[in-house]
Amino acid sequence: MADIKNYLKEKEKREQNKSNYKEKIIKHKLTNVYRVLLIVLALGAVAVLIMVQYQKHIYTDYDIVSSIERETASEAMDMRLENAILTYSKDGAHCTNVKGEVNWNQTYEIQDIKLATCKDVVAIGNYNGREIYVQNAEKQLGTITTTMPIRDLTVSATGNVTAILADADVTWINTYNSEGENIYTGQARMQNSGYPAAISLSPNGELLAISYVYVDAGVIKTNIAFYNFGPVGTNHSDYMVSAYSYPDVFVPQVQFMNDETAFAVGDNRLMIYKGAQKPISAAEHLYDEEVQSVFYNQSYVGLVFTSEDAKARYRLDVYNANAEKVGSYYFDMDYTNIFFEENQFVIYNETECLIKTFENVEKYKGFFSKAVNLMLPTSTAYKYVLVTSNSIDTIQLK
Fold this sequence. Notes:
Blueprint (H helix, E strand, L loop, with lengths): L1 H55 L5 E8 L7 E5 L2 E6 L2 E5 L5 E6 L5 E6 L2 E6 L4 E6 L3 E6 L4 E6 L5 E6 L4 E6 L5 E7 L6 E7 L5 E10 L2 E10 L11 E8 L5 E6 L2 E5 L3 E6 L5 E7 L4 E6 L3 E7 L7 E7 L4 E7 L5 E4 L3 E5 L3 E6 L4 E6 L6 E4 L5 E5 L3 E7 L1
Antiparallel strand pairs: 1-32, 2-3, 3-4, 4-5, 6-7, 7-8, 8-9, 10-11, 11-12, 12-13, 14-15, 15-16, 16-17, 18-19, 19-20, 20-21, 22-23, 23-24, 24-25, 26-27, 27-28, 28-29, 30-31, 31-32
């Protein structure tokens, strides 16, 4: 009997030890979990603190972290080509990377240049001429020869080009691939559809937007038409998949921001369209002032107006690709260009620069040490490339 009692006591003791052991393991695991959570929370707090300080930080100057010499003709113009520099004149064009290396060089003789870009692709033609040169930032893609004089052109990121061509009674709207093959032919007559005042290809080259302007009973009207060159468009007459009419409105600009968003700027409203196959009207924003300039990228479009505020010469109204107004921003400086970044925009001219966030925080305002032709963003925050007539400088704000 004593042996049974001892056995039961030993068994109870073993069970208790086993239970204590499990509790210790659980406590140890919970302790490790709590430690990890505390570390994560601490890191999160540090990240938030850094982000808050980053957003509040104001820059007052810059350092030139690298500088490369360059030579350009006095009459040459510089233009951004994605992350590269396009330099062109009446005698030719060449593309340079930010290291100063020339990727390609194209010679020609053009008196009245018609130029269109999309991401890193450029099409260069001659008004009233019959040749269009197509290149991206890395290489020459091809040359297009038209059978009629060129009036206007647009290019996609795939290298497709749509050109408005003049004829005696008909205006032709032809689309080519970069090798010069004609892949679509359309026409417009003033008495029927009107004159194509503006055109734009989507980056993927599948959609074409045209602003047709015509006069009806002495009143100017505009039709915005969208064409789809993909499978969806083959089921529609002349590939036209949607169209919108605007009585008593003149629309001199239509432009794709990305493959599914386009906008049109009229004399009294901004129209935004959405849709990768059949663009529909997403929003209209009315105004009663004259638009001074239009700037855009794949995410934002900005309209510059003369300011009604005595303290600033201009007002920039910004809208996003969702057709929503981001805000109105006032500034008091001449501008050569305005470009948008993820959460801010940059305004600059030859001598000075202004950077503001969409929350209207002025991050930087200052002067350049030498005349700037072109300013490019980089992949690093507040680091930019400044292109001058004799150098390519990379700067870091501080």
